[in-house]
Amino acid sequence: MEILTGTLFRIALREESPLQVIGVTNPYHAIMAKDADFRALYLSGSGVATSSYGLPDLGMTTLDNVLEDVRRITSVSDLPLLVDVDTGWGGAFMIARTIKEMARSGAAGVHIEDQVQAKRCGHRPGKQIVSKAEMCDRIKAASDAKEYDDFVVMARTDSIANEGVDSAINRSYAYVEAGADMIFAEAVKTIEDFRRFHDALDVPILANLTEFGETPNFTVNELRDAGVDIALYPLTLFRAANRAAERALKVIRSDGSQKRIIDDLQTRSELYEFLDYHKYENKLNELFKLDSQD
Questions:
Q1: In which element (H, E) is residue 203 found?
Q2: Cα–Cα–Cα angle for 229, 226, 231, nearest 5°?
Q3: From CA 146, how far away is CA 252, in angstroms rounded?
Q4: Using an 8 Å Cβ cutoff, are 49 and 56 in contact?
């Protein structure tokens, strides 16, 4: 019997502490992540907006936009995928639809946040937060729509910037009471504050280790000591690829050749190895051989 992806995520969470979850913005990076022995994947709303649509992360993408990238990733990787669904794209019925469509597309779970619909990046100023009651309604709608128990509904709170850590913990407790399986504490600045979330809540805590934001790049040992259960690297691969692409563009334009960076490039054989290219090619050869005998 096939194990559901939400169950796979929970198994990985039990077996690795903290569970390192790597963000991917395309199927090929998902394949590479498995080869590097990661146990779980993440799809960022910012990653979808920026990588797939060339847009800033300001609530400009839709449920269908994100679902398309979810399907692309889950079609090539059996690693459990946690998906950023922003504020759920609407009221209770829309949130319920979001949960059902995510599960049907192969996602292991989602996180939904307590920003207003016109959301901003969690590490930028000017965020506005809905009331605790409104966010609890979002969580109830999401939890009630789960098609199986192990599908993960994670509550993300962006309230630290506006209301402080004590309020964020208080909100998180209410979100768990409303049905949240896990808590995503956004823009936490100190390891001590992560420990406070851990001590106050009896559910897994996620640390968002996005670079160049409010949260320092804590190590897994530091996070483990503070009781953090999930270490998320949402856009590290995307940023690394972008920097490499930027350098390549400049070199090719200035030198009139790629020779100076050739040793930095993934080779054709390495590309083929990740894709299991020769298996497909051999199958194609077999088919042509059969056709020629008819």
A1: none
A2: 35
A3: 50
A4: yes
Provide the pLDDT for residue 293.
47
What's the pLDDT tens digit per position in 3-25?
999 999 999 999 999 999 999 99
Which residue numbers are catalytic?
42, 57, 84, 86, 111, 113, 121, 156, 186, 208
Whole-model pTM?
0.94
Token pair recorded at residue 36: 């590097």
Q: What is the DSSP letter of 283?
A: H
Quick one: which of 73, 102, 72 has its CA closest to 86? 102
**How much is the pLDDT for 292?**
45
Q: Mention every residue, 6+ apart, whose C-beta is less than 8 A from residue 104.
A: 147
23: helix, strand or coil: strand
DSSP assignment letter at 93: H
Q: Which run of H or of E encompasses 294?
A: none
